[in-house]
Amino acid sequence: MKIFAFAGSNSSTSINKQLVKFVLKSFEGHEINLIDLNDYNMPVFSVDLEKNGFPQEAQLFLDHIASSDMIICSLAENNRSYSVAFKNVFDWASRINVKVFQDKPMLLMTTSPGGYGGGNVMAEAQKFFPQFGAIIKETFSLPKFYENFDQDNGVISPEHLNSLKEKIADFKQQISS
How far is CA 3 from CA 24, 49, 70, 101, 109, in A? Predict the structure, then answer.
C-alpha cells in the first residue's frame, strides 16, 4: 500500500515531522511518500491570484494524495489552529479539488510542547477534514513533546507509546478490512 505522509509545519525542526517519521517505522513494507511542506512554497492564497491560475505545487500535493492509499499526518498547532504553511497549501489545493483528501483513510496526529498536545488543531481538523474528503480512522495526540519523545527512541512515555501502538494497530486493521 502507498502512504502519503506529511507534517503540517514548515519548521526545519518540526516536532510533528519527528512524530510522523517515528510512526512511519510501523509501516515497513509499504511504499512511503513523506513530503516536506517547505517544498510547497506558494504565494499566500487570494481570489485575485487565483484568477491567474493555480500553483503547480497545489496540484502536486493533490496528485500525491491521488496516488496514495492512505494518509498519515501530524498537524502543528499555531495559535490554536493550523500552521500558515499547511493552511496555504490546503487553501490552494481545495480550490482545485474541494475533496482535498479524496476519500482516503487518514491517521491524524498532533503534538506540541504543551500539555494539551495540539488538542485545538486536532478538534478543528476532526470537524472539518471529513468535509474535504478525509476518512479519519484514528487520531493520536502527544502532549509535552519534549518530555515524552526522544530523538533516538521516539515516544518514550509508556502510556503514550501503548496508546499509539494500539491506534496504529487499529488503523492498520481498518484499512486492511
Answer: 9, 31, 5, 13, 15
